[in-house]
Amino acid sequence: MSKQKLVITGAAGLVGMNLLAMLKGSEKYSITAIDKDKEKLRTFEWLFPGVKAVWADISEKGEWEKEFSGAHSVVQLQAQISATEGRPYQKNNIDTVENVLNACENNNVKHLIHFSSSVVISVAEDNYTNTKKEGEELVKKSKVPYTIIRPPLMYGCFDTKHLGFMDALLDKSPVFPVPGSGKYLRQPLFVEDICKIVIKLLEIKPENKAYDIIGKEKIHFVGLVKIIAKEKKQKRLFIPIPIPVFLFLLRCYSWLTGKKPFIPDQLKALTAGDIFPVTNWEDEFDVKYTPFRQGFRKTISSEYYKYKKIFMKKAKH
């Protein structure tokens, strides 16, 4: 039986890498993975042999569109999460979506799984939120059969941002700076849970629906970081820092290292106080929710966790 062609865009990110790991050795899919991060593509070529890696910036039309020929399904993962000005959001959250939709239409793709974000149902008002909303509308108005997924804060192997960055920071420093009180509720989702849902969706006919896939636990931000430290048996001192001072320290860190782990908009989103409604997605997709502590234990025991330093080094914050 011939394999079904699957194209994954933004494949070198958290969801893409874990999805490739879960589909490794699959007899059902022939996978083409597209990303603009050439170094990460090189890395996963030897992690996931058999996957066709294509280096391309899909915010611009080009030869990469030919990779959609014969594709049955496309998983669209690329996104601009942080930037100091608006253009990268337009380029990576809107232009890329338009180009992928065109490629899907031109090649009669049967199912587009579009990754949006829980921010579209949040109280946040920023470049990331607005462009993710616009990206969703583009998908809904297109002629491409689709499924939209809205995940919250995710974590797992290959995470170089968010909790992955916190994990790396805990490794380096005995003191952990906490923005404000740190008591901002999060509803984290283990990346393997969302990947299981994607695999289920690949097997069914799309119904042009959007799903909010939200973590069932409500844990304070500082509580998440403390769980990470405890599971790794690290004794750390957590120091609350007033938000204005925290922002100043972030600017100093960025100036010294050239990296931007957070920008002001992200900090505002962190402290916004969103509580997202939890739908019955477990029964919908027959995927059991993984509690945070269990998910993080699984992360650090994974065969891929040892590559964390490599991916953190390659990450562009």
Which secondary structure elements does this structure contain, and how are they paired or packed?
Layout: E1 4-9, H1 14-23, E2 29-35, H2 38-47, E3 52-55, E4 73-76, H3 87-106, E5 111-115, H4 127-141, E6 146-150, E7 154-155, H5 162-172, E8 175-179, E9 185-186, E10 189-190, H6 191-202, E11 209-212, E12 219-220, H7 221-231, E13 237-241, H8 243-257, H9 264-270, H10 281-285, H11 292-301, H12 308-314
Helix pairs in contact: 1-6, 3-4, 5-7, 7-11
Brief description of this entry?
With 317 residues, this protein is an alpha/beta fold. Helix content is 42%, strand content 17%.
Folded structure, characterized:
With 317 residues, the chain is α/β, with parallel strands linked by helices. The chain has a domain at 4-153 and 189-215 and 276-290: Rossmann fold, CATH 3.40.50. 42% of the residues lie in helices and 17% in strands. It is built from twelve helices and 13 strands. The strands form four sheets. A seven-stranded parallel β-sheet has the order 3-2-1-4-5-6-11, with helices on both faces. Helix 1 packs across helix 6. The longest helix is centred in the first third of the chain and has 20 residues, at 87-106. The protein is globular, with a radius of gyration of 19 Å.
Search tags:
317 residues, alpha/beta, Rossmann fold, seven-stranded parallel β-sheet
Total E-strand runs: 13
Strand fraction equals 15-25%
Overall body shape: globular
**Given the helix and strand composition, which structural class is it?**
alpha/beta
Mean of pLDDT: 90
**CATH hierarchy: architecture of the domain at 4-153 and 189-215 and 276-290:** 3-Layer(aba) Sandwich
- Give helix % range: 40-55%
The ordered H/E elements are EHEHEEHEHEEHEEEHEEHEHHHHH
- The tally of helices reads 12
CATH fold label of the domain at 4-153 and 189-215 and 276-290: Rossmann fold
Unreliable segments of 5+ consecutive residues: none
